[in-house]
Each structure stands twice: as structure tokens, then as C-alpha cells.
Amino acid sequence: MEKYVRGKVLGKGSFGSAILVTNKLDNKNYVIKEIDISRMPKAERDASEQEAKLLMALNHPNIVRCIECFTHLNKLCIVMDWCSEGA
């Protein structure tokens, strides 16, 4: 998270939130989806992390690109392109 500056919260759900961030290195905006994994069983956490990594392999014009994923403070963070005009 240290390479991103947090902006406004774009949305919240039962499992987490979507936050607009700016990358300090390239000054581009992205969205980080933060998913609380602190109460998930280990098998479910592992499956969620694996699914996030699979998202990074997808390359299709109708799918928002996943830039990276990592865990930070018991949250699975999925960094995605920001669609400023909507999806």
C-alpha cells in the first residue's frame, strides 16, 4: 500500500470496499478492492488469493485489467484499472 495514495471510497459491500488510489510512481489512478480476509478460514483465504492471481492473467477488452494483488493488514487488495467513465 505504500506506493499508493488513498483517495475516496467508491463503494462498500459486505466483504470489503473499493477505493480510488493514485500510484506514487506513475501518478495514475487505480481502484483497489479491499476484501477483509481476517475471518475467513485458511482454505477460503487461499482460494481468494488464487482467484485474484488468476484475474491478473485475464486479457479481454470487456474485462477490467487487474494490475496486482497483495495482502495488507488482513485485507486482500486487488489493484485494478480505474474506469473513470463507468464500466
From TrEMBL:
- InterPro entries xref list: Kinase-like_dom_sf, NEK_Ser/Thr_kinase_NIMA, Prot_kinase_dom, Protein_kinase_ATP_BS
Q: Can you state which reaction this protein catalyses?
A: L-seryl-[protein] + ATP = O-phospho-L-seryl-[protein] + ADP + H(+); L-threonyl-[protein] + ATP = O-phospho-L-threonyl-[protein] + ADP + H(+)
Positions binding ATP in this chain are K33
Gene3D superfamilies (alphabetical): Phosphorylase Kinase, domain 1 (3.30.200.20)
Q: What is its EC number?
A: 2.7.11.1
Give the top-rank taxon of the lineage listed in the UniProt record for this protein: Eukaryota
Enzyme class label = transferase
Xref: SUPFAM superfamilies: Protein kinase-like (PK-like) (SSF56112)
Q: Name one GO molecular function term.
A: protein serine/threonine kinase activity
Q: Which Pfam families match?
A: Pkinase
Q: Which organism is it from?
A: Tetrabaena socialis
Please provide the record's keywords in A-Z order: ATP-binding, Kinase, Nucleotide-binding, Serine/threonine-protein kinase, Transferase
Listed name of the protein: non-specific serine/threonine protein kinase
Location of the Protein kinase domain:
4-87
